[in-house]
Write the structure tokens for this entry.
Amino acid sequence: MDTAAWPHGRGEMADRIRTFDWASTPLGPILSWPQSLKTAVEVMLASGLPASIQWGREAILLYNDANARLLGGLHPVALGRPVFDALPTRHSWEPALRRVMTGESIAFGEQRVLTNEDGGEREIWADQAASPIRDETGTIVGIWEVSIGITAYAQRQQKAAEDALGESEAREAFLLRLSDALRVLAEPVAMQTTACRMVGEHLRVNRCSYGEISGGEVVPRSTWGRDDAAPTERFALGECSPVPMEDFLAGPAIVVADIESNPRLSESRRERLRAARIAAFIGVALLEEARSGAVFWVQSAVPRAWAASEVELIRNVAERTCAAVERARAGAALRNSEQRFRQFAEASSDVIWIRDAKSLQLEYWNPVFRSGFGDKWDAMIAGDPLKGWLEIIVPEDRERTLGVIARVVSGEPMTFEYRIKRPCDGEILWTRSTVFPLLDEAGRVPRIGGICHDITAEKAMAERMESLVAELQHRTRNLMAVVQSIIAQTLATSEDQDAFRTRIDERLIALSRVQSLLSRSEQQPITIGALVQLELDALDRNVLRNRVEVSGPDVRVRNSTVQILTLALHELATNARKYGALATSQGRLRIRWHVESIEGFPSLLLSWIEERGVGVAVKPDRRGYGRELIERALPYTLNAETRYELDEAGLRCTIALPLAGRDQRNEAHERPPTRP
Amino acid sequence: MNAPQLAHKRVLVVEDDYLVAMDIVRTLERAGAEVIGPAPAVEAALDALEQAVPDGAILDINLGGEMAFPVADALMALGVPFIFATGYDAQVIPLRFTHVKRCEKPMASEQICAALFG
């Protein structure tokens, strides 16, 4: 073999290898190369793919024409040099190449490679692999490396990825438009119709329908169709659905490209679909529970190979529409419930409010609450919420109220009573409030509510009852003392048992008459005239005939004076009948009264005048008790001035009774009139 | 009749109702006491206290609408033991008098004696 003749071939690299000064390299003169190296070089040069050889421990580089183009500026100096000197970027490959030198074949896979073809640097994609070269003895003496340019393929891949991205962007854009369109709608049917129309136009199909699964059946809610689509009514869902319901409910979507070739469709179903001019369809079912949810149908009048992205789009639309409809329904239900609550609260005569648990800011109040503030409302609502609350509570009850609020905020409902000063009129009102936590789903207390009932009247009634009972108790005990006193006095002045029995009977009856007057005094105020008449009426009618003259205006007497006055009048009347003017046939009795101001206070002046008549025998007069009552008891108890003059002609008794009590006179900041 | 329980005791009676006052006076006198008063009103009671300091006193609380508490204050200042003779509920009585004994009318002399000097 001629030196100049090997290696054969006319390529640039064949020439360069032939003429290279190999003697100065570790490979030695070309004539001394082993056959294995020569064979490898020949195969390399003959290869149309970029290929190279690294030979020996020094990894001397040899390469072919195709590889030379990849090396760009590193060619031709790279030839015959150790590979790591020749190709500086190769250092990172060193571990892999060492593995090849131990017998391993390595595929590097797709690599980005910089080339210098046509004088300009550019990046290409290449698939590279390296494998060991053995000599005649089987010893690994070199590395065989080959590249396959895959730039065009990589570009196609990238374009496909970009197309897919564009499609998904377009889908996202469509879904966004759908969401925007649904957001402004409030009516579920309008939402469903809009979704059907938008999908129908977007996918250029013939018909879209939205239905709801209720009790295992599909109820159509709304449909969109092109002009030439068959009327919706003729396409019934439910029992007449184009595929068995089980299929429909089982998977994410039913996709039928051509009804004629789909094995799941029975002939009868095909028949119905043909009649409805449906050749292809997609159906999506969204199940909330086993027997409720929504379905979305897209139908084509001609067979159609549905893209996976279209199926996904329809599923997305169905999900979004279903969610929007649910939200709309929940919103409507909430508005309904809210409206009911408002009507309830606004009809209440109790104050009802809701406050933020943290800031105590009012979030809701009913009209009663608002009106209680009158013209101070604006200032209250603009000011500090806690201060606004506490200010209307009377100072003594504030601390307790704060304690209650703290407990309610921590989750405990409380009922308590406190007083408020109603801002609109300054009136002090007793309030019974039930304040309670309004829990959220997590059991926290974001708000508290209050229902406040005005119990002022209730409290006043209870107080009145209490004072009535106390008053009754007082009167009863007092009456017992009076009775005891009368008994003792009567006993002391009665000559025998009969006399005692008669007198005590009469006195106790007089006392009981006055009690019944007192018990009616609320409805019927007691007048002096009524007292006089009461005692006269107790006497025998015949005794009174034409002999008694009673005159005087209606003058009301205080209840506290009635008892002792009655007893005194009773004694006067009884004595008159037994010993005085009414004990004789000629006697006369004149009772007169009027009101006069004495020392600046109105007084009742009453005169009781008895005339015995001439020549009438006088029985022994025993007027001791009556006289005592007039002369001592009335001045003592009632601060009255009295005169009691008994002589042959008869009795002249006068009583000047102040009409106002001691307390009232004291209140007038006047010194009470001195008693005689 | 027992030996007079209240012999040589001077007892002021403040009671606006004549009949009730007479009843108390009778009860006290029967028990041997010397009665000062009876006084139907605050002013009369205070006048009586200026004349003589009693050994004890029985006070009705409501004297014709006027409260007897100024008399009670005067008695406390003088260190004279006294009782309220009243059917009134405890709640009208000021806190400073909560220790004062109360007897419901009508009263027996034993009751008065025990309450005032027991």
